[in-house]
Design brief:
homotetramer, five-stranded antiparallel beta sheet
């Protein structure tokens, strides 16, 4: 299992007139958290695209338990439970505020596809190698 | 069952460097489609808030089947299958492009809550009355 | 002079906790207004990009006179006072609400550049031809 | 003169199909930079709103010199040249990328107004006191 944590400060732009973070903005928070998760490994999503592979989102589930507010310092936990065996990868996200309250739960499924053709492919070997040590071999 | 259709033109701002609509923007499309759905009944979400009731989103599921592109004229179908009996309402959304291809599927659950206290409440009677004719009495 | 009008309904996502449209969202409104302005001529910005020319914004000025609110039906007036002679084009925008109050003034300067090289170029001839009749010859 | 620097990592959501940061997103970057500028003083914009004063933007000027790209680590310099004497405050912003190239210039004028009435007011004394030491007395 590979778990990372990223902090995001809520911007004024991200609130709406309900005085909370607009529900559509969590997708951005999840994106940032995924990008920082990979950066922690010493790889970047930018490098992946430069190498011809991109990761469109194909499915997202979100549960909004409590609202986030302007200027909250959110902690986004990103969890990769399984090392993907094919073109599909599932990230889970948990959003906490500075009082350690759980605000939001997210599940995001992405595909590895080739830039240009949109053809399904696998996780780049360089990233797989970096992730391997978090997933001890099953016997 | 209450079904409406709304059209949205994809803005340049809504695309990302994958040359498609960023996945986080569909939440906005669903919001617009819900608002227009209610407006079709002769009621507005703005009126609901003015009457002291607001509708935070508590759950969202989205499946991204095909990408939307800049300047696409999307049709968002909004489906209300059941008249809510309590504080909870479920809208389903289907996004089609101008070639009638199904791009995206969404399910959004919202609560009716009182502004200020965030206390759960029921759909305002004036809206329920307008919706009733789409939901013949079960016997 | 070439003047067009476009209507935009304010989305909930576009408000912030000040209960008004977030100031950063007017850039999107101006973008939509420019795109619709060109569409009125029988040409689209999408076609321009397909023909290898794109239009990055190089300068923007905005004055916020009165706030816009959720669900307001805005009218964006787009004014092209001069037919560009080189790579530079200036659009002026005026945003009105449904009570015909002037809310916002904008000036946006864009360049015509070649996709790929970012090299400055001129307005495509096909668009110039369509615009010509709004700009009688000076003598 | 009061100068601060804030870093912002470009999100994927903030790019558009031109492969650069959408021009409308700089307003958010400026907002974050202003908020962090004030936080550096030991005060927050959130506290200001809690004390009944808010700061709507009334004017913005932006020059886009070079594009920002996905994953760029931007440095936003925020400059307050004069301590405001009335309801009006002017911030200047300079956006640099990780190669220290100047990308964008911004000027943003905001008003201090009372929440609720939108009546013009002055900068809260607590903030003025914190700023004073950066502005030696003229004689």
């Amino acid at each position: 299992m590979f778990i990372t944590e990223t902090q995001i400060r809520v911007r004024y732009a991200e609130t709406d007139q309900m005085n909370v973070v607009y529900y559509g903005n969590y997708a951005q928070y999840f994106e940032v958290a995924r990008a920082e998760s990979i950066r922690n490994l010493g790889f970047t999503y930018k490098q992946m695209e430069a190498a011809g592979v991109m990761m469109p989102v194909v499915e997202m589930q979100t549960k909004f338990l409590r609202p986030a507010h302007y200027d909250d310092l959110l902690t986004i936990k990103t969890i990769l439970r399984e090392l993907p065996e094919d073109h599909r990868i599932l990230f889970e996200h948990e959003v906490y505020n500075q009082e350690k309250k759980l605000l939001t739960l997210g599940k995001v499924i992405l595909y590895f596809v080739k830039i240009g053709s949109f053809e399904k492919t696998r996780m780049p070997e360089s990233l797989r190698t970096l992730l391997q040590r978090f997933f001890p071999l099953k016997s």
